[in-house]
Amino acid sequence: MRNQTVEKIGVTGHRGCKAYVAENTLESFREAFRLDVDVLEFDVHLTRDKVLVVMHDDLVDRTTDGTGCIHFKTLEEVKKLDAGVKFGQPGLRIPTLREALECIVNEGAPDMILNVEIKDQRPDCIDATIAMLDEFGVLDRSVIASFDAQALLYVQDNYPHVKTQGHYPIYMVQYDPRVLDRMYGMGVPMSLTDEEIEELVNMLDEKGIEAWGYHADSREAAERCMKFGFTNITANDPHELIAYLDEIGRRIYK
Fold it and tell me: Nearest Cα to 212, choosing from 41, 97, 54, 26?
């Protein structure tokens, strides 16, 4: 196993700062900026009229006042949805990826890493996402993530210069072990036992893959992540983690 305690560790704001502000909205991103997260995580889908939008679920039902699949909606229809009302913050909207990147470039830290999860695994969504990240000059500080191994293999085959992040193999769909050969990072669920984590990080060490823990919102969870040599923690509520890691001088990018 890698060294028992990693020296430095980063904090990822999950869908912005979803514990406090409606997820995947510009307002949630701004709260993450205010906290000075090291990494910003968000999700991408493609609308019926081929516009990239920032949204986690295929269905809009859980997070908005609408119903149905986002892939079957036009941008005009998507923009009419209220993305904050179910969080008690009415009036928030689903941003396009362009709007999100404009916000990130103009308001976020210039060294902040972007963890961009492709939820729509179609090649046209992947191609358009990478092209737009490149257009905004942030591709070199982006890591493309997916729970779909075939989507990651597509990125690895067609964009070998782009970093990819997968997940614990049993949680990935269409799994192919070849995806591990060129993977930059792997999301490791904190629900695993210590024994399971140790076995997994041993394998990641052998392949040179970074271990990124999720989801961990407390100092106790941070200590567990550091014990196993994780280099990053994804948090729904980054407040306590950032305060603790700053206090002990252990944030990787600071």
Answer: 41
Which residues does 195 contact at the CB level (< 8 Å), separation at least 6? Answer: none
Please answer whether residues 97 and 53 qualify as being in contact, where contact means their C-beta atoms are separated by less than 8 angstroms: yes
At residue 115, the 3 state secondary structure works out as strand
Distance in angstroms (rounded) separating the CA atoms of residues 151 and 183: 12
Q: What is the band of 7 on the pLDDT scale with cuts at 50, 70, 90? A: confident
Helix intervals (H) in the chain: 26-35, 75-79, 97-107, 123-135, 149-158, 194-207, 219-227, 239-247
> Largest Cα–Cα distance in the chain?
51
DSSP conformational letter for 22: -
Confidence of residue 79 (pLDDT cuts 50, 70, 90): very high
Pull the structure tokens for residue 139. Answer: 């591709």
Structure tokens at 65: 């006042």
Residue 28 Rama label (left phi>0; alpha psi -120 to 50; beta): alpha
Active-site positions read 14, 56
**Cα dist from 139 to 49, 142, 175, 187, whole Å:** 24, 5, 25, 20
Peptide bond into 45 cis (omega under 30): no
DSSP classification of residue 80: T
In the DSSP assignment, the letter for residue 64 is S
Please tell me the distance from the alpha carbon of residue 44 to that of residue 60, in angstroms, as a whole number: 13
Residue written as token pair 């560790």? 9
Give per-residue pLDDT as tens, 215-226: 989 999 999 999
φ and ψ of 3, to 5 deg: -50, 140
Residue 192 and residue 37: Cα distance in Å, rounded?
25
